Amino acid sequence: MRSIDAAAIGTLGIPRLLLMDHAGLALARAVRTLTSASPAPIAVCCGVGFNGGDGLAAARHLHEWGYPLRILVAGRADRLREEPAVYARILRGLGCALRECATAEEAAELGSWLADAGVIIDALLGIGAAGTVREPVASLIRRINGAGKPVVSADIPSGLDGDTGRIQGVAVRAAVTVTFGLPKRGCLIANGPAHVGELVIDPITIPSSLLVP
Ligand SMILES: NC(=O)c1ccc[n+]([C@@H]2O[C@H](COP(=O)([O-])OP(=O)(O)OC[C@H]3O[C@@H](n4cnc5c(N)ncnc54)[C@H](OP(=O)(O)O)[C@@H]3O)[C@@H](O)[C@H]2O)c1
């Protein structure tokens, strides 16, 4: 998928923002299948990489559909990459606050913040993660799993290795995983099937000619 992403974005020139918006839309639709109109907020947990950008893009759609939101960034929001930062700016302009969580101690304060949510979006780590999950993401994953709420994961459950399906210390247990382009091998083998829940595959407008072997 990394080389397909590179071909779509680098070679064909499809703007990353466009793919991110479709990824966000696919996540928002998955939330809508779990709760059609939620009085409880949707908690959107975002990393500072592109996986987090997909979560922020989902937040924009959910806000438009009238869902109350709680948006979390694992780290300092000024570390967000270019396109995710665009969504952060849009969301703030729409009056949606972004809560930062940069340490394990700050993550420990989020128990009820997550438990009060109707659905949790996990957009902390995608296929760019490497090695054992570090703080504050590790503590956030434990809090997400402990909240007892349905979780929609972006691309792969955070903490699951996309290639091997092994848990990198700790991993989200999702109710639904919306995977972008093609399913990641790690979703299908080892610990993957026990963590992905229902697997939804969305092409996010990546041309089908790139998705066939
Ligand atoms: N919208 C699009 O255009 C598009 C297209 C395809 C895919 N995607 C999405 O983008 C994702 C890939 O994005 P990405 O390459 O930016 O990677 P990522 O999956 O978002 O992960 C990168 C981030 O995770 C952190 N990280 C890496 N290893 C970690 C660890 N062990 N513990 C804690 N944090 C860790 C990195 O921090 P450091 O930098 O500090 O290491 C970095 O902030 C895909 O899974 C998919 O969701 C988006």
| Overall average residue pLDDT | 96
* Net shape: globular
Number of domains: 1
- Return the CATH topology: Rossmann fold
Strand content is: 15-25%
Order of helices and strands: HHEHEHEHHEHEEHHEH
Number-wise, the strands total: 7
Sequence stretches where pLDDT stays below 50 over 5 or more residues = none
Which ligands, by name, code or SMILES, are bound? NADP nicotinamide-adenine-dinucleotide phosphate
- CATH C-level label: Alpha Beta
Radius of gyration: 16 Å
Give the strand order, joined by hyphens, for the main sheet. 3-2-1-4-5-6-7
Structural class: alpha/beta
Number of helices: 10
Question: Notable features of this structure?
Answer:
alpha/beta; binds NADP nicotinamide-adenine-dinucleotide phosphate; 7 strands; 213 residues; Rossmann fold; 10 helices; 16% strand; 7-stranded parallel β-sheet
Question: What are the SSEs and their pairings?
Answer:
Elements: H1 2-11, H2 16-34, E1 42-46, H3 50-64, E2 69-74, H4 82-93, E3 98-101, H5 104-108, H6 111-115, E4 119-123, H7 137-146, E5 151-154, E6 176-180, H8 185-188, H9 192-196, E7 198-202, H10 208-211
Parallel strand pairs: 1-2, 1-4, 2-3, 4-5, 5-6, 6-7
Helix pairs in contact: 2-3, 3-4
The structure holds NADP nicotinamide-adenine-dinucleotide phosphate (NAP).
Residues 5, 16, 19-20, 23, 47-52, 54, 125-134, 137, 154-155, 180 line the site of NADP nicotinamide-adenine-dinucleotide phosphate (NAP).
Can you put this structure into words, describing what you see?
This protein has helices spanning 2-11, 16-34, 50-64, 82-93, 104-108, 111-115, 137-146, 185-188, 192-196, 208-211, and strands spanning 42-46, 69-74, 98-101, 119-123, 151-154, 176-180, 198-202. By secondary structure, it is α/β, with parallel strands linked by helices. The protein has one domain (16-211): Rossmann fold. β4 (119-123), α7 (137-146) and β5 form a beta-alpha-beta unit. α2 (16-34) packs across α3 and α3 (50-64) packs parallel to α4.
